[in-house]
Amino acid sequence: MGPLVVYRRSTERHPHVTRTALSTLLTCLFVAFGGAPAFATPVQELVTVTGRVLAKTDGRPLPGAVVTAGITKATADADGRFTLTARPGPLRVVVSSPSFIDQPIDLTITPGMGPVELSLAKTSVQESIDISDTAVSAPQSVVALQPSSVLRVAGAGDNIFKALQTLPGVSATDDFGSRLAVRGGGPDQNLTVMDGVEIHNPYRLFGLTSAFNPETVRRFELTAGGFGAEYGDRLSSILVVENRSGTSSERLTGSAAMSLTDANVVLEGKLPGQARGSWLFTGRRTYYDLVADKITGNDLPSFGDLQARGDWHAKPGHVFSLFALRSREKTDATFTDSGDSIAVGDTSKNDLVSLSYSGVLSRQVTARSILAWYDYGDDLAVDGSVRDGARRSNSPERDAEQVSAIVFNRGLTVRDLSFRQQIDAQVGRRQTVSAGFDLHALRTTWDWTISGDRNGSVANGSAVIGGTGLPSLLASSRDTTRASAWLVDRLTLGPRVRMEPGLRIDRSGFNGEVVFSPRLSATVELGRGNRVKGSAGLFTQSPGYEKLLQSDYFVDLSADTAKQLSSERSTHVIGTFEHDVSPAITARVEAYYKTFDRLIIGRLETPEETAARVAEYDFPAALATSIPTSPQITSGPSNDGSGNAYGFDVYLEKRQRAAADRLSGWASYTWGQATLDAYGIRRPFDYDRRHSLSLVSTLRLSQRLDVGSTLRVASGFPATVPVGVRVASMEAPDGSGRLIPQVDARGLLVWTVDFGGVSNLSRTRLPMYTRLDLRITFKPKNPAGRWQIYVEILNALNRKNYVNLQPQLDFDPASDRPQIGYKTDSGLPRLPSFGLRYRF
Question: Tens digit of pLDDT for each residue in 546-571?
Answer without folding.
Answer: 999 999 999 999 877 788 999 999 99
